[in-house]
Amino acid sequence: MINKSLLSQEEINALLKTVVHNPEEGDIELSVRFVMAELKRTPEALISWQEGDMLPIETQVAILANNTLIAHGELVLVNDKLGVRLTEIFNKSE
């Protein structure tokens, strides 16, 4: 009889990739993503895009660690490069 509550090897590997222990530094590495925008467009609109087209996005950025929203920020220029200024950090105890 197969125990369906057990994770498959593929599911175990996916979970292990989300948190990686680094024994040399004693730290845990988290995957951090900066999500700027989600645009909804029709397939026809996507087909009409050309190199050089400008797509407007908001300056607010959602910051996620291992797919959990941990903060908000805004896009800024830092030494002629894009950066993110933190505007809201969610309570660490929540």
Topology of this structure?
Elements lengths: L8 H10 E4 L4 E4 L1 E4 L7 H6 L11 E6 L2 E11 L2 E9 L5
Antiparallel strand pairs: 1-2, 3-4, 4-5, 5-6
InterPro entries: FliN-like_C (IPR001543), SpoA-like_sf (IPR036429)
Keywords: Cell projection, Cilium, Flagellum
Protein name: Flagellar motor switch protein FliN
Report how far apart the termini are.
40 Å
CATH topology: Surface presentation of antigens (SPOA)
Biggest pleated-sheet summary = 4 strands, antiparallel
Percent helix, as a range, is 10-25%
Structural class: alpha+beta
CATH superfamily, called what? SpoA-like
SSE succession = HEEEHEEE
Average residue pLDDT: 79
- CATH classification, class level: Mainly Beta
Domain Flagellar motor switch protein FliN-like C-terminal: 27-90
Keywords: Cell projection, Cilium, Flagellum
Protein name: Flagellar motor switch protein FliN
InterPro entries: FliN-like_C, SpoA-like_sf
